[in-house]
Amino acid sequence: MTETRPSGIADTDTYITRMFAAPRAVVFDFWLQPARLAEWWGPVGYSAPAEHIVMEGAVGGRFQVCMIEEATGVEIWTYGEVLEFVEPELIAFQLSVKRPVDEEPITMQLRVQFHDHGERTRITLHQGPFAATEMERGNNIGWSMSFDKLDAAIAGIRP
User: What's phi and psi for 18, nearest 5 deg?
Assistant: First the structure.
């Protein structure tokens, strides 16, 4: 599901909306609990072991995740701080991503809103700023694949 971009969000930023078949508290929990994050974080071909995930659900809290490319074992570390936290409505982070191909970490913000639609939840995700070359690396595709994995993880816990 894609919405019209609100004004002020650059074309090179990632802006995605997606509906999930679970109540907001359930979807929010998949972002808050390391074991749940490990079930879906990262695009197809990547894993994020729970032992490398830290998610402190409070303003000023620490966030850390390591995605591992399954074919090569290459690690991509993300470190961050929680800037905003309103359970179960909003999580915003300041992130630093260190990929092996980059000499310097890429810094950006990630803001995720959880919209209550009864037995369904709509996530609105905004990540950036990015340079145009960074967007070419497939950030939108990566989030889409991650959200496909999140859909599957949610389905696994539903009756």
Answer: -155, 140
pTM comes to 0.89
In this structure, which amino acid lies at residue 25? A
| CA atoms of 66 and 4, how far apart (whole Å) | 32
Q: Is residue 3 part of a domain?
A: no
pLDDT digits (tens, 9 = 90+) for 22-70: 999 999 999 999 999 999 999 999 999 999 999 999 999 999 999 999 9
DSSP E strand boundaries for the chain: 14-20, 46-47, 54-55, 62-69, 75-86, 90-98, 106-117, 120-128
User: Which residue type is seen at 12?
Assistant: T
Per the listing, tokens 């359930």 go with 26
Structure-block tokens of residue 2: 């894609």
Quick one: CA dihedral 138, 43, 77, 57, positive or negative? positive
Q: What is the CATH number of the domain that holds 96?
A: 3.30.530.20
Token reading at 48: 């994020």
Name the domain count of the chain. 1
Spatial CB neighbours of 134, under 8 Å, sequence gap ≥ 6: 12, 106
